[in-house]
Design goal:
Elements (H helix, E strand, L loop, with lengths): L2 E7 L5 E8 L8 H15 L4 E7 L3 H9 L3 E9 L2 E12 L1
Parallel strand pairs: 2-3
Antiparallel strand pairs: 1-2, 3-5, 4-5
């Protein structure tokens, strides 16, 4: 496996991008943008109104990827479910 990205459809009808990962050897190759693009393409096919995600505070590489992909910061923050001592910042894109 070289990478993965998933999407969950929430009760409100929005999608949530989850489990984004790319083999470190492919980082910087454009493959991460391709994964995000595939998720957004699927979300558009399903006519989801928006896709949201959380990016860990301090992960500037991921934040820049999502901004380049059209996401915007929502201003919302929340603890990471698996590590409440760390914060994730919300981002969203309207489809």
């Amino acid at each position: 496996m070289v990478g993965l990205a998933g999407i969950v459809v929430e009760e409100d009808g929005d999608g949530q991008l989850i489990s984004m990962w790319l083999d470190p050897r492919l980082r910087g190759s454009g493959a991460a943008a391709d994964l995000v693009g595939a998720v957004l393409g699927w979300a558009r096919e399903q006519r989801l109104p928006r896709v949201r995600l959380g990016v860990t505070e301090g992960n500037q590489v991921a934040r820049r990827l999502y901004l380049r992909s059209g996401f915007a910061e929502t201003g919302r923050t929340a603890p990471l479910p698996q590590d409440p001592s760390r914060i994730q910042r919300g981002m969203a894109i309207a489809l």
